## 1
Amino acid sequence: MDGSTTPTTAPVLILLGPPGAGKGTQARMLEEQFGLVQLSTGDLLRAAVAAGTDAGEQAKAVMEAGDLVSDDIVIAILRDRLADADCAKGVILDGFPRTTVQAKALDMLLAESGQKIDAAVSLDVDDAAMVDRISGRFTCGGCGEGYHDTYKAPKVAGQCDKCQGTDFKRRADDNAKTVAARLDAYHAQTAPLIAFYDAQGALARVDAMGAIDEIATTLGDIVRRATA
């Protein structure tokens, strides 16, 4: 053995986009179409803690102390997860990396198995439209049917189309001021990552304000090009 890695063609994609851009929806569609596995930081941490892995135990201790889990622990958890058989067809990373420091650590981790970031896809949105889209959302408290002040109001005012319930709920953080602040924070945090992956030639930008199926088609083309 010479210590060299065995290259793998399993694609690694990153989805970048603010809350409400449709990352979860598009990731699920890519999973179904290409057999990729969506890996979100939160899910990875919870699974590692539940499984009692070494990295999971470290994360548990940190979280119980009320501190943020370090990049080293997250990378260790991700290393364990990427070794699982279901990741052999490729993965979609959601929520990691968030900084260029994390991006560089991720590159080093992937290099261990001869992998790299095949595409970092930025789901681009119009901020004003996103504020309107998210801040207008509400749901039926009875059956969970979703509505929107502008785009999908109940057919009968104050009554759910599906169950005829009259109890509607809005998320406390789905208001224009909070949504705008979340978008500002996202852009400030993600701008360096976009520049980082653009410099690597891995960045792809997708207009995420269109129809879901059209966005999915574009993403599918990106995956095919990345793995060709």
## 2
Amino acid sequence: MAFALLRRRGPSNFERAADGSMTLIEHIRELRNRLFKASLGIVVGFGLGIWLARDVRSLLQEPYCQLDGSVVDGKCQFTQLGPADVLLLDLKIALWVGLIIAAPIWLYQLWAFIAPGLHRHERKYAYIFTALAAPLFAAGAVLAFFVVAKGLEFLVGLAGEDVANTLEITRYISFVTNMILMFGVAFEFPLIVLMLNFVGLVSGRKMLGWWRIAVFLFFLFAAIVTPTPDPFGMTALALCLCALYFAAVGVAMLNDRRRGRGREIYAGLDDDEVSPLDLASEPVTAGERVEAVTPLAAPDPVAAPRPIDRRFDDMT
């Protein structure tokens, strides 16, 4: 009975999209359904985020609350400029937390809509890159949290003893979250490099030749985004990016060796050099002679067809 119902139901939208049998209107409806399911998951995650928003805000306040002078009467003091600033801030934090909690749902809906248009090896690479993206972003976020703690100690100390260090809550949270976002995105750079190699745009040997430029850009980026002028936070971020870059170069070179790149017939030739052709020439011999055949009997010898005296290469 169940087997009969499955046969009667027909192929799923995923199968129809994979074999190209869906029309444009059906693709639009499929996109609408996927977006609705993803939005429903985000709404559920947002509800859980409201419940966790205050705890997350307390966690983000820890770098400042650990500084000397930030605790007054046993409480970490912040300033609120507007009556609804903290409420709006908690809603913003709840939305971010909801996106993180509902990430498996909306990422699956996005993948289910895109996957039918990809080849099998492209799907395999998407699985690998997605599995690596989340840990790399988390590692960058953790590093940013420690850099912010050291950076606040320096920045607050610049104000001097005659200035009260009471920070405005929304601007402080925005500063911390922006640092986490920049560090997390920076840690995704090796994945971009690997994507370029896997699609065949850049070879691992060429990427290794760019290591001086890459190291310089990493230190320049770290010097810009780190909030302190001391070399410790900048060096920590730059060294992490360099280590990830060289790891990506190593994976790219292994991928090139697996695919046989660099051993092509034109690998060791200059642009104006003639390439060798290993072709075995075969001698050309004359074909067999074909004799014209006359009819055995004709009613009139004069009207009987005669063999053609001209050769095919004499005709114009």
## 3
Amino acid sequence: MHVTPPPPPASGDDGNGPRHEDDQHAHLPYQRWDELPPVDVRIPDDLSELDAEVATYQAELRSRRRRERVDRLVPGLRRLRARRGRRHRPDLLERLDRRAQREAPAGRSRHTSGAVVALIVIVLAALGAMVPLVLAHPRPLAPRGAVPLASTSVLPGAVGGLLPDVPLSTARTSRPATDLRPALIVLLPVACECPRAIHEIVSQTREGRPIPTYLVAPWTDDPSLERLVRQPDAAAGLAVGYNDPGASLSRLYRADPRQPTLLLVAMDGRLVHPPRTFTVGDRLEGWLGALPGR
């Protein structure tokens, strides 16, 4: 569409009529209509033809807002960029947004990639935050392989004999004591308040080649068992807790009623040492070193 300038002023009016202080056009360089340059303005019949220009303009606005946010978060970045004299390099969100605009099918919104990328970044950050928590609470060691029980005539309770085949239970499952091999079995006193002793025992079993460690309470639902298994100042999740409802192991091995009693069991189920009462400050290097395969 071609816009034609309006007709010149009426005769006798040279365009320099009386001046008014509030005349907003008094400063214009052109004082006569016939002196104005021709104006050629084309308005498209379908406004959708301007979609590409609008999208480009909006992308520039987003890029400018991102740069402004980064400049606010990182003091001195704008001065560094100006000093180096380099052209601003689009950030990751901007590059992905431009790629999405190129690859998006016709008729599909092109302005959602920024939100999708932000969601992905949040999920990855949450997963990254969980990694230290998982590493700080490793799972207890599982028995290494299925080795047949030793064939021995030594009675249970003596060195070289097998543990009795008594059931040990948790809130979810039950297993025989003969399945705990190789192992360091810690027979707890009733309602044992001994986190420091348990912490020292578990720490020493992790020196060198670790030994699976089990805490056995002499009755069902001992309230101290869960705390000793989970507390950071006790086993810190590096031992598995079981209940011995009939206190069979404590009675057979004459466990100390005040201090933890230790049983060292080989991979074939044999008792390696006589039961040992543990007190805070004891060192177990030589005692644990007798375990075959360690």
## 4
Amino acid sequence: MSPTPTAPPYGTALADGIGPLNTALGRLSAGSTPDAIDGDLAQAEDAAADAAAGLRLAVAPDAVADTHRQLRTALERLAVDLGAVRSGLDAHRLCAPSSALAETAAAQGLKDTAAALSALASAGYPATLTVPQAGPVQNRALENGAFVRKGRADGHGELTVDNGGGGDAVLTLVRGSDTAYSFYVVKGRTAKVTGIRDGAYDVYFTGGSDWDAGTKRFTRDCSFTKFDDGLDFATTSRTYSTWKLSLRPVVGGNASTTNVPADTFPAP
């Protein structure tokens, strides 16, 4: 007859369960890439679920039995919360490591897990948990019409953009493979750029909220779009080109657009 395995002491079981989660959470960084933080979140999600499952087998002392159950519930919720952050990245509701990290740090499952572990530590059963440090959710924006990239303004062309979409936008004109002009259009506002040099331009725009000037990207609710037809600017002795674009469906409009992958979108 095989001997019945003896359950490890509760403190050991607790540390063994929380250790991998602590390691995974410690890898999360706002300085990583979206793909990298998605992979780190996946490891943390698995670690939270494994910790919850493993602690179901642990024998908690009577004095901390209720807190032990609270911890298991918190870990299960944390796994769900981390999965939701990953889904947000996939759906472009979250568009940057900073916004993913901010949502992770604010997750109720993480708060509940930290609270339960604090109570257990006070009862003599400590376990280390790294709570990711993140700034608050931000709503940064530029002034309407502000240039993100101001090309040479010695031409005569004019472009007016009416942003009737669901968020702020950055409109970008690309000539060849180079971004020539890029400017910010606040939701519900119209912006006009003058001095555009003659030439044929592809037209892109990105929409969203919370503009990160450092990465030149919206961190939340981002979209990446290209007008199917470009714009030609030409100047003669009597005329020059003026164009108007609307960043919303317009009855009778003929400017079709196509969504493009974020990794192929030209830098504004």
